[in-house]
C-alpha cells in the first residue's frame, strides 16, 4: 500500500552525518568512470550494525546484493534468467539439474571460485534451516560436485517450479564460511569475501559506502567507483526532500505527485519508472450465491472503472491489470496469441448490465438487481480501513456495483480483522493481491490451487476465494513438473484461459514497484523504453550503467 506521509515542510532542515572520508563533490571517476552514485536506504533495521550475512534478511545490510552473487540473475520485468556464476544449466530429467560454472571467477581475496563453493553453500542451508529463508530444501534432496566446474542438483520431485529460487541464493566462499562456528549468528562484518562487483569500503549507522572490485570477473562492465547508501528517516519526509533536491541518484519510495515534487525540479535528469507488480483483484467468496455462478462473475469483469481507480486512488502511477493474472506487457509472451488487448478489460457498464440480465440477474421494478431467488442482491465489500488508497478504490468499486442495481455496503475493518476474515472465508467480497513474480507456478498455484484452500471457517493458505477446479489443478501440476519452456508456456496459456473464461478472481490494477533515478551522472537505468531489468535487479543494473555523456552502444 502507499506509504502514508504528511506534506513536506518547506523549511525542513537537513543534517547528514557521514564519516567515510569520501564526501567529495561529484566528478569523473578513475579512467572515465563515475566517481560515486548516491542510493537510498541500506537496511539493517532501526539500529543498523555491520552485518553482511546474506541469509539474515531482517538485519543484513543491502551491501550483500553487491558482494555476493548467484548462479543465475533474473530480469524480473521480462522474467528471463541470465547466466551469471553459471553459464548454462540442463535438466537431464525432471528431478536432476546440472549446472556448468563460469571460468575465471575469483573471490575478492584472490581465491578461485569453484563448484565446491556452490555445494558447500547449499549444504550449509540444509544443515542450518534458519538460513534457508527461500525454502530451497523443500525441493532438493542432494547437491553434488561433479567436477570443479560442474554441480548436480537432485530433487525429491520434479524441480522446475523451484527454478526461480536459484536466482535468489547467494553463493558464499567455502574457505571462509567453513571456519564459522555458527553461520546463523555470523555477521560476516570484517572484510566480507564475495565474488560480486563491490567490496565494503566504509560503514557507519548513517552511510554505507561500497568500492568497486577491480578483480571482478566482469569489471569492464562496472563503470562506478563507489556506491553510497544513506539511512532513511523514519517518516520518509527527509528522504522525499533529498530526492526532490537531486541528492539521490536512485531510490525507491512512494512520493505524492512525483511529477511536481521530483521530475519538474530537473526535467532533463529526474526520471521515474513504476513497473507493475502483483494484481490487486476483487475476491468473491465462491462458496456463496451468486458468486458461485461463472456467468455472474464473467458479467462483472467490465463492471469496474479500472482507469478511474488508477487515476484517483493510485494517482496515475499504475496500470489496469489483465484478467489473465499475468503482468503485462512484461509477461506478454506467456499469453495466448489471440487474446485481445492482452486481457485488459475496458469499462463497459452497459455490457455488464446486459450480461447480468442474460445470466438470470435482472433488475426489478425498483431498479434493484435480483438473484435467481427473486430477492435483491445485497452484499458487503471490505478493505482495511487504514489503507487509504484501497479505501479510495473501494469507493469507486462500490459506486460501480451500486450503479448496476446491487446494494453494496462498504466496510473498513482493521487490517488484522480483514486478513483473518479473508483467510477463513468470512466475507462476501474483498480485495486481494496475487502474482507478479517470475515463478509462474506460484503465480497461479497460490490463488487457484485447491491444496491452497480450506473449508469455510478454516484458514486457507492463499486460495482465499475457495476456487476448486480439477482442470485448474491439473494445469498447475503440469506447470510444476514441466522443465521445457514451451511446455510451461502452454500450461500458463491454458491457465490464463481459466482466468478469462471462468473468472475465479477479477484483477483491477497492478501494484507499483517504486523506482526513481537521475541521469546527471549515470545513464543506462532500466525504464519503460528499455526494460532490460526490474528496479530490484541490482547486478543487472550496475553492470549496465554508463557515465553520463557516454555514446549509446
Report on this structure.
Helix 7 packs antiparallel against helix 9, helix 11 packs antiparallel against helix 12 and helix 12 packs antiparallel against helix 13. It is globular, with a radius of gyration of 25 Å. The longest helix has 18 residues. The strands form six sheets. A five-stranded mixed beta sheet has the order 15-14-16-13-17, with helices on both faces. A four-stranded mixed beta sheet has the order 1-10-9-8, with no helix packed on it. It is of the alpha+beta class. InterPro entries: Peptide/Ni-bd (IPR030678), SBP_5 (IPR039424), SBP_5_dom (IPR000914). It comes from Micromonospora vulcania. This is ABC transporter substrate-binding protein.
Layout of secondary structure:
Blueprint: E1 37-39, H1 64-67, E2 72-75, E3 80-83, E4 86-93, E5 96-101, H2 115-127, E6 140-147, E7 150-155, H3 174-177, E8 198-204, E9 207-212, E10 226-230, H4 237-244, E11 250-251, H5 258-261, E12 270-272, E13 276-284, H6 294-300, H7 306-313, H8 349-358, E14 378-382, H9 388-403, E15 407-411, H10 415-424, E16 429-434, H11 440-448, H12 470-481, H13 485-502, E17 506-512, E18 516-518, E19 522-523, H14 538-542, E20 546-547
Helix pairs in contact: 6-8, 7-9, 11-12, 12-13
What fraction strand? 15-25%
Total E-strand runs: 20
Helix content: 10-25%
Low-confidence stretches: 1-27
Instruction: Give the helix tally.
Output: 14
Main β-sheet description: 5 strands, mixed
The outline comes out as globular
Strand order of the largest sheet: 15-14-16-13-17
The separation of the N and C termini measures 38 Å
* Average predicted confidence as pLDDT: 92
Q: Pairing-aware structural class of the strands and helices?
A: alpha+beta
Q: What does the radius of gyration come to?
A: 25 Å
Amino acid at each position: 500500500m502507499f506509504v502514508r506521509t504528511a506534506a513536506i515542510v518547506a523549511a525542513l532542515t537537513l543534517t547528514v552525518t557521514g564519516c567515510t572520508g569520501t564526501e567529495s563533490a561529484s566528478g569523473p571517476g578513475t579512467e572515465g568512470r563515475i566517481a560515486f552514485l548516491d542510493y537510498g536506504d541500506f537496511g539493517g533495521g532501526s539500529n543498523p550494525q555491520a552485518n553482511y550475512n546474506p541469509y539474515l534478511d531482517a538485519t543484513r545490510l543491502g551491501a550483500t546484493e553487491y558482494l555476493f552473487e548467484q548462479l543465475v540473475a533474473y530480469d524480473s520485468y521480462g522474467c528471463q534468467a541470465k547466466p551469471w556464476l553459471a553459464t548454462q544449466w540442463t535438466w537431464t530429467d525432471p528431478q536432476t539439474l546440472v549446472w556448468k560454472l563460469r571460468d575465471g571467477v575469483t573471490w575478492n581475496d584472490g581465491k578461485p571460485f569453484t563448484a565446491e563453493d556452490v555445494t558447500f553453500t547449499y549444504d550449509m542451508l540444509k544443515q542450518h534451516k534458519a538460513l534457508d529463508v527461500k525454502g530451497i530444501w523443500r525441493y532438493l534432496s542432494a547437491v553434488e560436485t561433479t567436477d570443479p566446474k560442474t554441480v548436480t542438483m537432485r530433487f525429491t520431485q520434479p524441480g522446475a517450479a523451484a527454478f526461480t529460487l536459484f536466482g535468489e541464493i547467494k553463493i558464499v566462499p567455502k574457505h571462509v564460511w567453513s571456519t564459522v562456528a555458527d553461520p546463523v549468528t555470523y555477521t560476516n562484518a570484517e572484510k566480507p569475501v564475495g565474488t560480486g562487483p563491490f567490496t565494503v569500503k566504509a560503514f557507519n549507522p548513517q552511510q554505507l559506502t561500497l568500492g568497486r572490485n577491480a578483480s571482478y570477473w566482469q569489471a569492464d562492465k562496472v563503470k562506478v567507483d563507489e556506491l553510497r547508501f544513506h539511512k532513511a528517516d523514519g517518516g520518509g519526509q527527509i528522504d522525499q526532500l533529498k530526492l526532490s533536491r537531486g541528492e539521490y541518484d536512485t531510490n525507491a519510495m512512494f512520493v505524492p505527485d512525483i511529477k511536481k515534487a521530483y521530475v519538474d525540479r530537473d526535467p532533463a535528469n529526474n526520471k521515474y519508472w513504476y513497473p507493475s507488480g502483483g494484481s490487486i483483484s476483487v475476491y468473491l467468496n465462491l462458496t456463496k450465491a451468486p458468486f458461485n455462478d461463472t456467468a455472474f462473475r464473467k458479467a462483472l469483469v467490465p463492471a469496474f472503472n479500472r482507469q478511474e481507480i488508477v487515476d484517483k486512488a493510485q494517482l496515475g502511477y499504475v496500470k489496469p491489470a489483465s484478467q489473465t493474472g499475468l503482468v503485462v506487457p512484461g509477461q506478454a509472451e506467456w499469453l495466448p496469441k489471440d487474446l485481445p488487448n492482452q486481457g485488459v478489460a475496458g469499462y463497459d457498464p452497459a455490457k455488464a448490465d446486459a450480461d447480468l440480465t442474460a445470466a438470470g440477474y435482472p433488475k426489478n421494478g425498483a431498479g434493484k438487481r435480483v438473484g435467481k431467488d427473486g430477492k435483491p442482491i445485497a452484499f458487503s465489500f471490505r478493505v482495511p480501513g487504514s489503507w487509504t488508497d484501497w479505501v479510495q478504490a473501494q469507493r469507486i468499486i462500490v459506486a460501480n456495483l451500486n450503479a448496476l442495481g446491487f446494494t453494496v455496503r462498504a466496510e473498513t475493518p482493521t487490517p488484522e480483522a480483514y486478513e483473518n476474515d479473508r483467510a477463513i472465508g468470512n466475507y462476501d467480497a474483498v480485495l486481494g493481491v496475487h502474482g507478479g513474480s517470475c515463478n509462474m507456478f506460484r503465480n497461479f498455484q497460490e490463488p487457484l490451487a485447491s491444496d491452497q484452500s480450506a473449508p469455510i471457517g478454516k484458514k486457507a493458505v492463499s486460495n482465499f476465494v475457495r476456487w476448486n477446479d480439477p482442470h485448474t489443478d491439473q494445469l498447475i501440476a503440469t506447470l510444476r513438473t514441466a522443465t521445457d519452456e514451451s511446455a510451461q508456456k502452454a500450461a500458463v496459456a491454458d491457465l490464463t484461459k481459466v482466468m478469462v473464461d471462468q473468472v475465479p478472481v477479477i484483477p483491477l490494477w497492478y501494484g507499483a514497484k517504486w523506482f526513481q533515478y537521475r541521469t546527471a551522472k549515470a545513464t543506462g537505468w532500466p525504464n519503460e523504453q528499455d526494460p532490460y531489468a526490474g528496479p530490484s535487479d541490482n547486478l543487472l543494473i550496475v553492470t549496465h550503467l554508463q557515465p553520463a555523456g557516454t555514446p549509446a552502444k
